[in-house]
């Protein structure tokens, strides 16, 4: 056997073996993971020896080849091809970051259809309930660069690549159902205005600056979207706890060629939850990777995040019956008028192996659709269909679709050829169609019925740089959104606007914006004006119509049963803590799927009262902050509480959690510590030393004589959305 052949054979065997090994773990029926496997190198295997990129074993890459003598260190030699290769490869490691959505995190998973919709679409993914379609999802922020923090106020991207049997379908959505602009030609403007200002590249990952708000005022069409961006939706607690929306209007086409308009929506099983602004600000510094880690930690703990997949569908006959244009991406289709039909589920169940090759190199394209799914004339979508393909060429090169993470799991056959970094060897003597061998004919010549067909639409109109008349109304839905929020959500919007406009130092900007807010709601405008300066408006040309649509408030979104599953709960202990309570409460939290962390004054063994068997804390008080947890429990024990009372960090932890309206629990003398730590005039957290009942006030759950069972019955649930 020749050396090459033998190596090839060994390579194939080991790929098969590895695929087989993978097959035995949970997710390897996932066709995409199997497809990635031959490109995956297991660096952890013992016996691996370091080589150059051309495969020659390397003796030493820690010392550049030099001329040395006993007395002197001579120059590095340029002839050292091994050193040159190492340095040159390093010099070219970076590729351009995404022009928007640069910071992201990705995971593998699957899509499962529960209810087939053949009457609407011929797509295999919407008809075959026995299929499990592999997917890759990337969540992102929009404005920040690759190294920016996770918990900034921003829209979040929610992009999914479905590796379907009929080709890749990319659904590139956001966690907010509308967009700033109506026409794709405005995209460079809105993004330039939101990104750091050109003269000083400040601020990073923020909309709180003159240019952003200048643009918003000058484009009334942004009004609806900026209200969403100022709401709690723009500071999610977790990527796992936000909705996803396709935003644009797409179409579904059935096998009879009948077309419906559709909007796509994802609703998380865990409900929609947000941080409070103060938490978000602190987390930016305390843990800039908070969302990234949260997703990976949940998947690692096998608490696989899930979303229900829904569609809102409109027939062609109904497209004109609304007071907005259904192709206008600055509008929602109110659910009371166009209900959501949930037909499937998305689950993320596998972390990536390498960030660059998967999350960075994955490339989405709105123009990637499969038979049975189509576009509409939504002018934003039409522009997107050009932009995504184009941007991947400059980010990854013309053969970006051959990269392992991007290539489909079904065959790819055509005569597109060559270009930088082509990876495929095409056998055959021709590279054009038609050819004398009838090689690789297209569906027209083979009469395949599952080829992509564009919907035959008749279009009559005049070529002009205009939008249709209904695109001109910009305020009704901004009012609808604001009216639909609960009182505390409205307060958060007011506070967010006050924060943002405070960062604008050009009076023209904040004065005009206050005027614009009066177009939405006079009291909102007045409350913001009071904080940021400028005249408080006394009247408005657009009185609030008073209408509401409950589904727009995230608090009203009661799609799932509330749960503490996957929430991070801190248990505060110190030497002398009560072991029985500690053990019981930790078991009770774990039984509900929560993740517990023991926090103590030091990360050394902490000993309970009367026992030499200690507990090893996960962290010490200086290492973590309350902001990183959803809830806190103070473990009782006379000596432990004495220590906590003298620990400034522990006191701050409780006060901060209380200020962020998080659930805090305590039993016995832990309650007295809570009361003391909160220590706010007028706030009585109602500890009844005589009672054996559990008392809940201000989200604090206490029981003086109560046991763990009673605390459990008081439902210690995190409430960070409050
Ligand atoms: Fe994007 N957008 N976008 N966008 N977008 C990009 O493509 C663009 C829009 C969205 O995780 C870019 O690969 C235009 C709406 C996500 O890799 C770029 C317009 C929505 C991601 C681009 C829009 C999105 C992108 C930059 C207006 C929600 C990240 C890098 C016409 C439905 C995808 C890239 C990922 C990324 C263009 C508007 C979502 C430049 C021209 C509306 C989630 O092509």
Automatic annotation (TrEMBL):
Gene3D superfamilies the UniProt entry points to: 1.20.1370.20, 3.40.50.880, Catalase core domain
Gene Ontology BP annotations: hydrogen peroxide catabolic process; response to oxidative stress
Catalytic activity, as annotated: 2 H2O2 = O2 + 2 H2O
Cofactors (names): heme
TM helices/strands, residue ranges: none
Binding of heme, residues: 388
Active site as annotated: 101, 174
This enzyme's EC code(s): 1.11.1.6
PANTHER family found in the cross-reference section: CATALASE, CATALASE-B
Similarity annotation: Belongs to the catalase family.
Protein name: Catalase
Organism: Pyronema omphalodes (strain CBS 100304) (Pyronema confluens)
């Amino acid at each position: 056997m020749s050396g090459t052949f033998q190596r090839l054979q060994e390579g194939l065997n080991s790929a098969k073996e590895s695929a087989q090994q993978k097959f035995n773990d949970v997710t390897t029926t996932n066709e995409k993971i199997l497809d990635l496997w031959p490109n995956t190198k297991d660096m952890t295997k013992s016996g691996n020896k370091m080589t150059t990129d051309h495969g020659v074993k390397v003796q030493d890459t820690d010392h550049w080849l030099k001329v040395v003598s006993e007395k002197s260190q001579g120059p590095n030699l340029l002839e050292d091809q091994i050193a040159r290769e190492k340095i040159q490869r390093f010099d070219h490691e970076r590729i351009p970051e995404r022009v928007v959505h640069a910071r992201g995190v990705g995971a593998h998973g699957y899509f499962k259809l529960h209810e087939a919709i053949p009457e609407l679409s011929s797509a295999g993914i919407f008809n075959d309930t026995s299929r499990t379609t592999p997917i890759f999802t990337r969540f992102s922020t929009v404005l920040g660069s690759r190294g920016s923090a996770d918990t900034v106020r921003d829209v979040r991207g929610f992009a999914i690549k479905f590796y379907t049997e009929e080709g890749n379908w990319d659904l590139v959505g956001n966690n907010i159902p509308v967009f700033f602009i109506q026409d794709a030609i405005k995209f460079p403007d809105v993004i330039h205005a939101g990104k750091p200002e050109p003269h000083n590249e400040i601020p990073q990952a923020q909309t709180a600056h003159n240019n952003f708000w200048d643009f918003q005022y000058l484009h009334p069409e942004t009004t609806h979207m900026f209200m969403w961006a100022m709401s709690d939706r723009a500071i999610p607690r977790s990527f796992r706890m936000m909705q996803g929306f396709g935003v644009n209007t797409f179409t579904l086409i059935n096998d009879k060629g009948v077309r419906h308009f559709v909007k796509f929506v994802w609703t998380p099983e865990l409900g929609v939850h947000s941080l409070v602004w103060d938490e978000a600000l602190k987390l930016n510094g305390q843990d800039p990777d908070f969302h990234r880690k949260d997703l990976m930690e949940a998947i690692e703990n096998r608490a696989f995040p899930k979303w229900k997949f829904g569609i809102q569908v409109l027939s062609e006959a109904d497209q004109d019956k609304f007071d907005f244009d259904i192709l206008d991406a600055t509008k929602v289709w109110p659910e009371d008028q166009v209900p959501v039909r949930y037909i499937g589920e998305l689950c993320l169940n596998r972390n990536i192996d390498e960030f660059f090759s998967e999350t960075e190199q994955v490339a989405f394209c709105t123009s990637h659709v499969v038979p049975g799914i189509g576009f509409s004339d939504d002018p934003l979508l039409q522009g997107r269909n050009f932009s995504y393909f184009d941007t991947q060429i400059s980010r990854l090169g013309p053969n970006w679709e051959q990269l392992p993470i991007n290539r489909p799991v079904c065959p790819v056959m055509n005569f597109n050829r060559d270009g930088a970094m082509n990876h495929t060897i095409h056998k055959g003597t021709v590279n054009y169609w038609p050819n004398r061998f009838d090689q690789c004919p297209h569906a027209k010549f083979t009469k395949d019925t599952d080829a992509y067909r564009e919907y035959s639409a008749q279009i009559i109109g005049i070529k002009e740089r205009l939008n249709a008349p209904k695109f001109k109304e910009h305020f009704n839905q901004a009012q609808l959104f604001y009216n639909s929020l609960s009182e505390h959500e409205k307060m958060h919007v007011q506070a967010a606007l006050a924060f943002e406009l405070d960062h604008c130092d050009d009076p023209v900007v904040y004065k005009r914006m206050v005027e614009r807010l009066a177009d939405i709601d006079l009291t909102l405008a007045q409350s913001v004006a009071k904080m940021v300066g400028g005249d408080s408006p006394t009247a408005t040309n657009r009185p609030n119509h008073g209408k509401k649509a409950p589904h727009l408030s995230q608090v009203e979104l009661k799609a799932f049963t509330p749960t503490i599953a996957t929430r991070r709960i801190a248990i505060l202990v110190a030497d002398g803590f009560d072991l029985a309570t500690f053990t019981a409460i930790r078991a009770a939290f774990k039984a509900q799927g929560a993740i517990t962390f023991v926090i103590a004054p030091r990360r050394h063994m902490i000993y309970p009262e009367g026992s030499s068997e200690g507990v090893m804390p996960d962290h010490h008080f200086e290492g973590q902050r309350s902001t990183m947890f959803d809830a806190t429990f103070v473990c009782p024990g006379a000596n432990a509480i004495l220590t906590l009372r003298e620990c400034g960090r522990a006191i701050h932890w409780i006060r901060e959690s209380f200020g962020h309206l998080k659930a805090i629990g305590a039993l016995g003398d832990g309650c007295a510590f809570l009361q003391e730590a909160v220590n706010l005039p007028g706030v009585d957290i109602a500890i009844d030393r005589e009672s054996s009942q559990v008392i809940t006030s201000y989200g604090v759950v206490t029981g003086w004589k109560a046991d763990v069972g009673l605390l459990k019955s008081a439902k210690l649930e995190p409430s960070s959305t409050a």
